[in-house]
Amino acid sequence: MKKIIVGLCIVVLVAVFGGRAYYLRKQTKSETDRIIKIGFLSDLSGFSSPSGKEALSGAQEAVKEINNKPEYGFKIKLSVQDHKFLAKDSLSAFKKALNDEIQGLIIMGSVPVLTLAPLVEQAKIPTIATSAANTEIPSLSNWMFRGWIYVKPQADLLADFIKNDLGVNEVAIFKIKNQFGDDYEDNFSQAYANLEGKVVLTESFSISDTDVKSQVAKIIDKNPKAVVVFGFEHGVAAAIDTLKEQGYSGAILTTPDAMVDYAIWKSKGADVYFTSTTWDFLDPNNKMSLHAMFAYIGTLLLAEAIKNASDNGADSIRQALLNIKNFDTPLGKISYDEKREIIFPKLLIKQMQPDGTTKIVRE
Q1: Domain identity same for 145 and 86
Q2: Starting at the edge strand that comes first in sequence, how are the strands of the sheet with 127-130 ordered?
Q3: Which of 36, 68, 285, 359 shows the smallest number of beta carbons within 10 Å?
């Protein structure tokens, strides 16, 4: 999969950059008209468009706040492009954003981020990847910064919780059929094996599946004491609901990526465990979803870097992003490390309750 994506990117490099490298114009602060354009590439009409639209709403909320604060010294304008969560459309969206003379970029979703990473490296544009958990993302470009909870710490936390808190020695993995699912499977399996736990079965589902009864039957036949579900959108909802419907009585665990379809968590999803931040995105009093919150934070991070940069050149903005430490957000103080991974104050395990509320079970 990765080879195909990288190969496609190489083919289109000439088309995107017109046969030469694209570099941001190194404006000084005295040269600019104080309107800073940031590209926002999201799924606005594809299969993950509910999440993509939520992410856009979070970015737009951040822009409103930034533009109402004189201390920034500039106003942000988003160049919004629809990547439809597809490689071809991601390339087109990226080209349109560059043509809009953006000075920073936010990309929503692992597949578009993985597709565009070589072009981001070629363009030398400071980029934040949101709603993108794939382990390799920051390593694919020196200009790529993560703005999401990534795979490894969640996999490690789930493995430790299952083995040491639940006392479960054998689990099944039920994962989505794509690189996202593979990445979580690899990281979780390794972490669980290090704790002398055993994965007795791995089953998979497609992102749009609604009928997963045959896979669930195989899982129940193995009788694991816990099932870890990795995925998002319709497929993961069907996976968890079907486990419940078919009478599976063991523990079901997942990640925030599975929380997009809120309906399942207020009915059949009760008792499900999931990794989370301190932000309770299922609280009806909170106006932002998980995808909206991280896009909101990503936009604030880019604006903070632009504000603190010595000029509006790409190198200065990139360095200012690297320098971000203990930045205040609704999730607590966050920072970037030298590998451009985002550092959160804490990850939790929560459990859904029958009334739709959540309970912290591991801090």
Answers
A1: yes
A2: 75-82, 35-42, 104-108, 127-130, 144-147
A3: 285
Taking the CA atoms of residue 155, residue 297, residue 48 and residue 87 in that order, the dihedral angle to the nearest 10 degrees is -90
Dig out the tokens for 12 from the structure: 């289109």
The token pair at 165 is 């808190």
**3-state DSSP assignment of residue 104:** strand
Query: Is the domain of 103 the same as that of 62?
Result: yes
Tens of pLDDT, residues 281-336: 767 677 788 889 999 999 999 999 999 998 879 999 999 999 999 999 988 899 99
Number of domains in the chain: 2
Low-confidence ranges of the chain (pLDDT < 50): 1-4, 6, 10-15, 18-32, 261-263
Q: Are residues 184 and 211 in the same domain?
A: yes
Residue 356 lies in a domain: no
C-alpha 122 chain-centroid distance: 23
Segment (H or E) for 106: strand 104-108
Which region holds residue 85: left if phi is over 0, alpha if psi is between -120 and 50, else beta?
Answer: left
**Is residue 195 a contact partner of residue 163, using CB atoms and an 8 Å limit?**
yes
d(CA 343, CA 244): 35
Per-residue pLDDT reduced to its tens digit, 199-212: 999 999 987 788 99
Q: Which of 250, 276, 302 is the last residue of a domain?
A: 276
- Domain CATH for 305: 3.40.50.2300
DSSP strand pairing (251-254 vs 327-329): unpaired
Four-point Cα dihedral 55, 98, 314, 119, nearest 10: 90
At 271 the pLDDT is 82
**Domain encompassing residue 219:** 151-276
Phi, psi (deg, nearest 5) at residue 306: -65, -40
**How far is the first Cα of the chain from the last one, in angstroms, to the nearest whole number?**
36
Could you tell me if 40 and 144 lie in one domain? Answer: yes
pTM over 0.90: no
